[in-house]
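Q: What does the assembled structure look like for these inputs?
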Amino acid sequence: MSVKKLSKESLLNWVDEIISTKKKVYGVQKHKDKTDRFEFAPLDSTADLRLDYDVTVLPPKKYFQPPTETLVAFDLKGGYKAACDTEKFIVIGIHPYDMIAINQMDELFQKDNYDSHYMTRRNNATIIACDVATASKDIFASSMKTATVKKGYDILLTDIGNGYVAEAATKKGQLLLDKAKTEKASDADIKARQAVWENNEKNLNKHPLNCQPSEVSELLEKAYNHPVWEEKAKTCFSCGSCNQVCPTCYCFNVHDDMNWDLKSGDRKRTWDGCLLDGFTKVAPDHEFRAKKSDRFRHRLYRKGKYVPSKIGGQIACVGCGRCIGACLPDIANPVKVYNRLLEDTSAVKK
Amino acid sequence: MCECCGQDKDIYLPQLATVNKARMMNGTELYLNLSMDAEPLDYKPGQFVEVSIPGFGEAPISISSSPTQKGYFELVVRKIGNVTSMIHKLKIGDKIGIRGPFGNGCYPIEEAKGKNLVFICGGIGLVPQRSFINYVLDNRSDYGNITVLLGTKCHTQRFFHSELRQWSQRSDIRLLETVDEKDDCWQGNVGVVTTLIPKIESELGSAFTFICGPPVMYKFVIMALAEENVSRDRIFVNLERKMKCGVGKCGHCQINNFYVCVDGPVFRCSELAVAPEAI
Ligand SMILES: Cc1cc2nc3c(=O)[nH]c(=O)nc-3n(C[C@H](O)[C@H](O)[C@H](O)COP(=O)(O)OP(=O)(O)OC[C@H]3O[C@@H](n4cnc5c(N)ncnc54)[C@H](O)[C@@H]3O)c2cc1C
Ligand code: SF4
Ligand code: SF4
Ligand code: FES
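A:
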């Protein structure tokens, strides 16, 4: 599929047209409450779209795995019906690191037991990704090799200053891009895009990791009893914010919600977090990961070792930096922990 | 097939089953005999199901019957919280939602052939073990000596009385029982289940051993077996963790790199060397 160029004006006209279709359209814009920050939200007006954003408060995973969703509707007589969210939608402005997180979730939700709830939403989505134009204060995507992305999106936009380079990666994306007023991207445009990529691959790196992301799994092999887990977790509030804001956290709880008729209801899944006290608590009263340090360690092992082993070795931290900003005691930064372990290989005991 | 996603089945959708029999076995354990309304349950010893009570949720429960028993399956449920309390209200003829069977980690049916087998059960830990014990009894000539060690807190908490009596009367299976608390009505052994290990008569070194019981029990039993030179690749443990999905997605049952719901619930002890959280 060919690479196109859109002027800034034709991009706006194109988004106008996308909004005017009946489909649900979500895009990055200023956060309604936290006005110095950004969020993915329903896009009512093209003027609100901010492709120059740094990072959103919550990742776009909320459109694929919503904070709350119905899995099964039931009635008390014992009837069960699978819920199915069939609405088609478009998301504009997903950054490469978030796209890579979605690619990982796609693999995890499809694998072994196919999760049709996640996958139906995923298949109904059209994703217009965009390269990072402004680095956020905590991003370390360069370290995680997630500063650029090659798959998962339908269209990728890159701001090259005098307009956008747009490349469709799917038929769905091509059909949508055909509606825009575009010209063929020139060699200079393609070069300018390449320069953006190269720059991002180097400079989205506020917290440089001192090893290759692929080496973290092996590093963790020898670090299970390292003092860093206790040290860091001492000040942990077990608030779970690091889980909630993370694009690669997907653990969930399931609970039943009765309707007002008291005859029917919904079985729902909601976001959960392995840092929360009670995550592993069973009846009558036993908690398997009762210590804060055990839960703190579990999250960083999941990102660095457990999930990677299920998705071909890719590290399950995409370097968005959200957990760093969300953590009050400032202990959640994965790079700080991994770098500390690297420095301390001598103090490491198995 | 679902029209919107094209999938054959929704992994979260319970299928209906009918209660054939329901009776209390002691003060806390309910015995259920169930049949699926549509497709029969095609399971292996060691697997479990998610039992669904609309409005309350689901609970993972081991299948206690052996797949050699056709047309029905059996569960034993201890009343302990929300869902299990509602399960206890079920009566004959009631409908109930079932998902599963789940768990790829089952008893090593093939590998254990020709070997002596030792089942070490603490209380309700007998429930899943019973599935394989009865499977072995129904394929008796395939296996060596069978010894079942059963420890119960107090004799009033024993269950499957008539089946235990039958086992103790058979010559091709040896049942040794003990209770933790001494009592005038109990004439048998007193002490924790590990005190029975020295009484096993068959050669332990080459036997396959299976442990299931409350979380605190495992360490002691494994230590006692180590003293008898049982190597860890012949020790199998049945692990329990909090579960929500049963299908390897929700993360609740994770033990280091394993999901109990898909990689277990039966694990070979030597494979857990990389999972310090396990025991
Ligand atoms: C593989 C497996 C097999 C099991 N087999 C049996 C059995 O044969 N008989 C039996 O009586 N019990 C069995 N249990 C334990 C049983 O699942 C719990 O007692 C039950 O889930 C408690 O649910 P509740 O709603 O009554 O309790 P609540 O405290 O109200 O629990 C709420 C929810 O938390 C989760 N949960 C709480 N405790 C446990 C637990 N111990 N294990 C897993 N999830 C839990 C469940 O999703 C439950 O619905 C098994 C557990 C596992 C993991
Ligand atoms: S662990 Fe932190 S930096 Fe890594 S992906 Fe999750 S929120 Fe982003
Ligand atoms: S955000 Fe920080 S304080 Fe809260 S659970 Fe995570 S590590 Fe602990
Ligand atoms: S119960 Fe959800 S992952 Fe095992």
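Residues B 243-246, 248-253, 259, 261 surround FE2/S2 (inorganic) cluster (ligand 4) (CB under 6 Å).
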